[in-house]
Amino acid sequence: MGGLYDSGRHFLRANWHLVENGWESDQSKGIPVPLQEEGLKEGEKLIPLIAAEGLTPQGGPLLDLLRGRKSRRKYSAGNLTLDEFSFLCWAAAGIKKHTAKYSLRTYPSGGARQPLDLFVHIAKVDGLEPGLYRYQPVEHGLVLMRAGKDTEGMDAALNGQYWNSAVVFVWAAVPYRTEWRYGPVSHKIIALDAGHACQNLYLACEAIGCGTCAIGAYDQVKLDALLGLDGKDRFSLYAAPVGRAD
Description:
Elements: H1 6-9, E1 46-48, H2 62-68, H3 82-93, E2 95-98, E3 103-105, E4 116-122, E5 131-136, E6 141-147, H4 151-157, E7 167-173, H5 176-182, H6 186-207, E8 210-212, H7 220-227, E9 235-244
Antiparallel strand pairs: 1-6, 2-3, 4-5, 4-7, 5-6, 7-9, 8-9
């Protein structure tokens, strides 16, 4: 039944034979481990978020959150508080343990390689200027990349799926972080990582009375350009508008 789709299915299989029989990873060659985040550039300032230990406990029992979790596309006009937004960032990409070579996040990542960067387009968060930000997981803070809402640009990049959101979360893939260890089987792992991260966001939104809806049907060229990504070694992979549930 596969027909024309067979070649596209290849990366989803457990193709570990590709890394056997003499294949050598960059890790085994002694090539230095890739950095886990894009560092601060000259002139950039870190905007700290509320640390995990300082966040207000949110939500009900996990059973209730799982029962209530669903994709939501209608949002009220209300802002998110800084506490709520900090919680969502930490749930979507936050670090629980960090060393020079790896980090453990709030969601699982194959080999702890963490191939995803998080960008946030903010329109309605108390205490934060509207604009496009890069999340810095090691520091649990933000870097302002470009001020201004530009909701039209984001809506176009999301193919009309902005939905009057307060924030849009976009995960970008940095494939080499996983390829450094797993080479030709990396891309299945990266896709799985993105799913783990977004499910965390879904449950975190449910806990604070917000909604989200994961988007795969975005315009690759427009979204990469909006985020300033090269589209090859770093490119948008998954997006999720978030707003207060209507």
